[in-house]
């Protein structure tokens, strides 16, 4: 079975660090390996929303009493 690689570029910047690293890795693949590249910047994604949640039905925020009620430790003075 031939190998295939899908490269998904999720950055809004073209030629960003992640893309440059992915392209450098792809150059090391044998020539007969199929590559497919998708840039999410070129696709219109739907707005994010949580269905069934409105300001009146949203779950109340809770705090973790173990980590949030304790004040931060004082910074050391050197």
From TrEMBL:
Protein name: NADPH-dependent FMN reductase-like domain-containing protein
Boundaries of every NADPH-dependent FMN reductase-like domain copy: 5-52
InterPro entries, per the entry: Flavoprotein-like_sf (IPR029039), FMN_Rdtase-like_dom (IPR005025)
Gene3D superfamilies: 3.40.50.360
Signal peptide bounds: none
Composition skew (Low complexity), residue ranges: 53-70
SUPFAM superfamilies attached to this UniProt entry: Flavoproteins (SSF52218)
Organism: Streptomyces avermitilis
Annotated spans, Disordered: 48-78
One Gene Ontology term of the molecular function aspect: oxidoreductase activity
């Amino acid at each position: 079975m031939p190998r295939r690689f899908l490269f998904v570029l999720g950055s809004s910047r073209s030629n960003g660090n992640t893309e440059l690293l992915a392209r450098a890795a792809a150059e090391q693949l044998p020539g007969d390996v199929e590559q497919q590249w998708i840039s999410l910047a070129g696709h219109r994604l739907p707005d994010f929303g949580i269905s069934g949640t409105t300001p009146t039905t949203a779950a109340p925020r809770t705090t973790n009493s173990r980590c949030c009620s304790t004040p931060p430790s004082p910074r050391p003075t050197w």
